[in-house]
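Researcher: Here's the sequence for the chain we discussed earlier.
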Amino acid sequence: MKGKAFVTSVYLLAAATLAGADPDTVIEMGSRRELFVDDLLVQELAGARLRLHQPVPREVSFIFDKPWEGNESYYITVLEDDQATGAGRYRMYYRGRNVLYDQKGYHLTHPEVVCYAESADGISWRRRELRLYEFEGNKRNNILWKGVGVHNFSPFIDGHPNCPPSQRYKAVGHGSGGLYAFQSADGIHWSKMQDDPVITKGAFDSHNVVFWDAMRGQYREYHRDFRNGRDIRTSASGDFLKWGESTFLDYAPPVQTSEDSPQDGTEPHPAGRVSQLYTNNVTPYYRAPHIFLGFPTRYIDRGWNPTTRTLPNPKFRELRGAVSKREGSALTDGMLMSSRDGSTFRVWPESFIRPGLRQKDNWFYGDNYQNWGLVETRGAYADSPRELSIYVTESALQGTSVTIRRHTIRIDGFVSVEAPLAGGYCTTKPLRFSGSRLSLNFSTSAVGTVRAELQRPDGTPIPGYTLQECTLLYGDSLAGVIQWRGGADISGLAGQPIRVRFELRDADLYSVQFTEPAD
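Model: Thanks. This is the structure I predict for it:
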C-alpha cells in the first residue's frame, strides 16, 4: 500500500485509535496535525485548561437588500475556488427571501431564489449579473437558480479523484419529498441529477450540507430532523445518488436534555433545557481532514419574561411574537463541535459566536447563523499571516434586508490549551510519531513561555529532551519549532511510543505536528 491510500489508512487508523483511546493506548499520530478541539489527545491537565476561543467581528461584508433578496436571506455557503469564473476566487451562494410581518400574520413578498456573489479576497464582495432568470420581468440580477431546492440550496466543490468535469460542483436542496441532487460544470449553471430526491428521511427545513470526505473515500451529508427538538442526521454515499440509512448524531458528552418547568412558574435555567441545533455546517477541517468541525446554530426559546422584554427592538419582538410566540422570544447563537468519526460529536456548551453588546440586530431568532465553508483570507495586519473568515447573519427579519458580517479567527485557533503566568502543564497520552521536528501553533505574552519534555510511556523523562534542557519558546507563530540543548532533531525517537509534556506560562497552544525541516 503506497501513496495516498497509505496516508488515508494512517489517518483512519489514527482517528479510530483516538475515538476509543484510553490512557495506555498508543496513538498513531504520524505526521498529521492535531488540534485541541477535544480532549482525546490529552492525558492530564494541571494548572491549564482547554479554552474555547471566539472569532473577532470585522466589517460588514454584504447586505442582502436587493428586491429579490430580503430579510430572511440565509443559508450561506462560501467556497474558495482557484478555478472560479470571472474575477472572483471566492464564491458565495445564499437564499433570497423576504417576509412581511403585520397584524394579520406574515407572508412572502416574492418567491424564494438562490443568489450568487464573488470576491477576489473574501472581504469585498460583488453580485455577479448572471442574466439567467427573470425577476419582475428583468434578468439583470444575480439569481442563480429557481425551482426545486431553492429553500436551502447547498453546493460544494467535489474532490472525488474520478469526478467528471461536468459534475465538479454538486449540491443538495430541499424540495417535495426530501433532498434533491444537483450538478454543475462551472458552479453557475445547474441541473438536477435525477428527478427523484436522493434522501427522503428527515425534516430538511434548515441548512443541509454535503461534501466529499477524502479520508474515508465517500460522500457525507448532514441534515435537519427532530429528536427532543431540532437535531441532526447523517448518512454516507459512494456515488452521491444512493445514500445509506441516515442516523441521528451521537454526542459525547451527551447534549443536555430538557427539564420540566418549575411549578411556581419561574423560568428554568437554560443549561437544563434541550440544546437544539438548528443548522450544522459540518466540514472536514482542511489542515487536519481526519477531524470534522461543525458550526451549528443553537436555538433556544427563553420564553416571555421581564428580561425578554428588555432585549433590543421590543416593539417588533412583540409584533413578531403575536404572529408566532416563539419567534418573539426564541434566540439563536453560534456553536462549535468536533468529531473523529463523523457520527459522534463533542459540542462545546459555551457560545462560539455570542449575539454581543449590541443595541439592535443580533438578539433575534435568525441572527448569528454561520456560513458553511472555512476559507482563508488575508490577516488583520499587513505583516500578519492569513486567518480564517466566517460569515455571520445579522438583522434577520427585522427590516427589509439581512446583514452579513465577517468574523475572523487564527488558523487552527478554535480551542487552545491555556495556562496563566503561574504556569500549567498538559501531558499527552502515549503516541507514536514520524518526522524530526515538533512544531507548535502557539501564542505567548511578552513574558510568557512554552517548553516541552519528551517522556517514555511511563512518564520517565527522556535524557536530552527534558524540560530543563528545553529552550524557552516565546512569541506568536503558526509553526514554532521546539528545541533542546542538543537542537530540534528528534528523529531518533520516531516510531517509538512517547508522551509529550507541555509547560505553558501565559500561553496558548492551538495545535501540534511532527514535521520535517522546511526546505
